[in-house]
Design brief:
alpha+beta, 3-stranded antiparallel beta sheet, 127 residues, Ribosomal Protein L22, Chain A, two-stranded antiparallel ribbon
Length: 127
């Protein structure tokens, strides 16, 4: 296995909360999958923190890939929970295409929260 890319991003939960207050449905539908929105809606007061973690994961993926949101829409990068708990990335459209172009066969995702911040790290690897 070799490492092809590494990306990390940190997001303020207050920033996401502000975006939700100003642009709720428009922001959600532009940046998150229906599954991500449904999961965040189950988090109650932790809704903004959940979305901040997912936003950080999308940004970390783009950084690991060496691309920007102008090349890959946020909606093409989806954070999903596995049955046993850990989160992973499910790639769609341009995200999956770009991953194949760089020769990556998989990625590892870690998301953490600490009070007012969410941080995510993505490691791209090939077999």
């Amino acid at each position: 296995m070799s490492i092809l890319g590494l990306g990390t991003d940190i997001v303020s939960v207050a920033r996401i909360n502000d975006l939700l207050q100003r642009h709720d449905e428009r922001f959600l539908n532009r940046c998150f999958s229906q599954h991500e929105i449904e999961y965040a809606n189950t988090r109650g007061l932790g809704r903004a923190a959940s979305l901040a973690g997912r936003w950080a994961a999308k940004e970390a993926f783009l950084k690991a890939l060496g691309r920007s949101v102008t090349h890959i829409p946020y909606g093409h990068v989806e954070v999903v929970r596995s049955d046993d708990g850990p989160v992973t990335l499910k790639l769609h459209g341009r995200a999956a295409e770009e991953m194949a172009l760089v020769g990556a066969s998989g990625c590892i995702l870690s998301i953490s929260h600490e009070k007012e911040f969410a941080i995510a790290t993505v490691l791209l690897q090939n077999s």
